[in-house]
Design brief:
heterodimer; A: alpha/beta; 2 domains; six-stranded mixed β-sheet; B: mainly alpha; about 75% helix
């Protein structure tokens, strides 16, 4: 089967500013992919292009379609939550369900109702009366009741407290994800999604810096915490990043021979957050 | 129900003013009929009765029509802007509904459905008002406000006015929607300033005011294009006026559909309106957020 999302030389310019600079990426079905990058790296531009919300240059197919030209058809098989705070304030919960049920052929009302039954939210409430966490639950109920192949989440938990964030991701993994679905998440809170993801894509200054599965991270990347006296020996292995921390130096290696690193210090697999910092800042920090 | 039906329902959910303003306005008129001072001239001849009935219905219709014009303009100017301002456009765009469908449904609401709501409200107000007035002023006006024939003629007048208004003001609606899809803030200024600026530039550099005439004519000339020349009701409507015993013209004499629908001015305007609406759809596809 062809890739679910395939981008070649995807470019998006806003006047003189280039938000996406010939980005290439491939996302296979059944994965949970994190698109991770600092603010202004081009995450949102990439998602907007994938969702057909903006015009772009380069080639892009999502579920075999051209997003900008075929957004309407694409949205039958793909849904997205772009910041949870976007449900309009005047909309009532039951109206939201009625509307989506009316216009979306793959929406299953019973699922949305069952999901909301587990919460405190009643049908007659308007969005303006709900807390941000409750709005998230409504949006999630609507989205998860859609039998979609691709779910795109853009900073889905921005502005939510820790309880609401945890509930959001738990619901996503337990009630939604299965092998027929694919989820693409952008966030800059890397730690929170780290153990959820199967793949990570790092993006910086409009370019894809790294695109790998998490299984590969363990074999590709090694971090070694060395003391000052062994620093020179360790540096001979050409680390791509150094981090000074509590009198030790953590060195990050890519595709290093593990035998070479043995004896230099404590060896571990870097976390996604560490890797992110290491990859994006380069050199010493 | 298809997507368009849902989109139209959605407009009623969002804009409760669509029916609340005519309801409140009608309510105020009825309060005036109930408690206001009624000093009507004594109607003696059947001819005067007919005049009174026609003037009464047309006056109520004209008042609703004016309020409707103001509300519809505001609605069209606001409709593509609000959901960009509160970012709820990102929710609407996550659903399989095309931007053309959304924009055209909003246009339909602003140009046809809102007028129909006002039409219904005007009718309800006229009927209840006639009931109140004929009880309160039985001695002077009797049952003259209950004139079935004239009532039907005013229905025709309303329908004709709705259709011609929609066609005639299509370029204005298109402009308002284009601004609504484009502006990042201050839609009102965006709607007014560019034409004003062009008008001033034209005056300064060419010494002409073609654009001003064009816009002025578009905003005011609908009655003269859609109705026949001798329009007593328009000049005398709004009060019971002695028309010197001349028979009041029937609605079929007043309206001028063949003139209206064969006027080049009408269709050039409509074409401009369609172009502006196509542009608004294109902007809606590209401009998601403010």
């Amino acid at each position: 089967m062809a890739a679910l999302i395939e981008a070649r030389d995807l470019t998006k310019k806003y006047g003189a500013h280039t938000a996406l600079d010939r980005a290439n990426l491939t996302i296979e079905a059944g994965r949970i992919v994190g698109l991770i990058g600092p603010n202004g790296a081009g995450k949102t531009s990439a998602l907007r292009a994938i969702l057909g919300l903006t015009h772009y240059e380069g080639q892009l197919t999502v579920l075999g379609r051209e997003p900008f030209r075929e957004r309407t058809a694409l949205m039958k098989e793909c849904c997205f939550i772009a910041d949870v705070a976007v449900l309009p304030s005047w909309l009532r919960v039951d109206q939201a369900i009625d509307f989506v049920a009316g216009v979306h052929p793959r929406f299953r009302r019973d699922r949305a109702v069952a999901f909301l039954a587990k919460t405190q939210i009643t049908g007659k409430r308007r969005m303006r009366e709900l807390s941000k966490g409750m709005k998230t639950q409504v949006h999630l109920a609507l989205t998860m009741a859609i039998d979609a192949k691709l779910l795109v989440l853009d900073e889905p938990t921005l502005g939510l407290d820790i309880l609401a964030r945890r509930a959001f991701y738990d619901a996503l993994v337990n009630d939604y994800m299965d092998e027929t679905r694919t989820i693409l998440i952008t966030t800059h809170q890397v730690e929170e999604v780290e153990n959820l993801l199967t793949d990570i894509i790092f993006i910086d200054k409009g370019r894809i810096v790294m695109d790998t599965s998490l299984e590969d991270v363990a074999t590709r990347f090694t971090a070694v915490a060395v003391t000052a006296d062994r620093l020179d020996a360790a540096r001979a292995g050409k680390p791509f990043h150094e981090r000074h921390i509590l009198g030790k130096v953590v060195l990050y290696f890519e595709n290093a021979d593990p035998r070479q690193l043995e004896g230099l210090g404590e060896i571990h697999t870097p976390s996604v957050a560490d890797l992110f910092v290491a990859k994006l800042s380069g050199g010493a920090s | 129900m298809n997507n368009s039906t849902w989109l139209i329902r959605r407009e009623f959910w969002e804009n409760r003013a669509i029916w609340m303003i005519p309801a409140v306005f009608g309510g105020l008129l009825l309060l005036a009929a109930l408690f206001g001072q009624v000093s009507l001239p004594r109607l003696t001849s059947p001819h005067e009765s007919e005049e009174a009935a026609a003037a009464y219905l047309v006056a109520i219709g004209a008042m609703f029509y004016l309020v409707m014009g103001v509300y519809s303009s505001w609605y069209l100017l606001d409709c593509l802007y609000t959901d960009r301002r509160d970012r709820s456009i990102l929710f609407w765009k996550s659903l399989p509904i095309s931007d053309a469908n959304t924009v055209l449904c909003k246009l339909l609401v602003g140009m046809i459905i809102v007028p129909l709501v006002y039409f219904a409200a005007a009718d309800a107000t006229a009927l209840i008002g006639a009931f109140i007035l004929s009880i309160r002023a039985r001695a002077s006006i009797g049952s003259s406000l209950w004139n079935g024939d004239i009532w039907w003629q005013v229905q025709v007048l309303w329908m004709y006015a709705i259709v011609t208004t929609a066609v005639w003001y299509l370029p204005v609606a298109g402009w308002l929607m284009l601004v609504s899809a484009y502006a990042k803030r201050a839609v009102m200024l965006w709607a007014v300033l560019p034409p004003l600026l062009l008008y001033i530039l034209e005056r300064v550099f060419f010494g002409t005011h073609l654009l001003g005439q064009l816009i002025g004519r578009r905003l005011t000339a609908l009655p003269s294009v859609s109705f026949n020349g001798s329009n007593h009701v328009w000049t005398h409507g709004g009060g019971v006026v002695d028309m010197g015993g001349a028979p009041i013209p029937s609605v079929w004499q007043l309206i001028n559909p063949s003139g209206f629908f064969t006027s080049a001015e009408v269709w050039i305007g409509a074409a401009v309106g369609i172009a502006l609406i196509v542009a608004a759809i294109q902007l809606r596809m590209r401009r998601s957020e403010i």
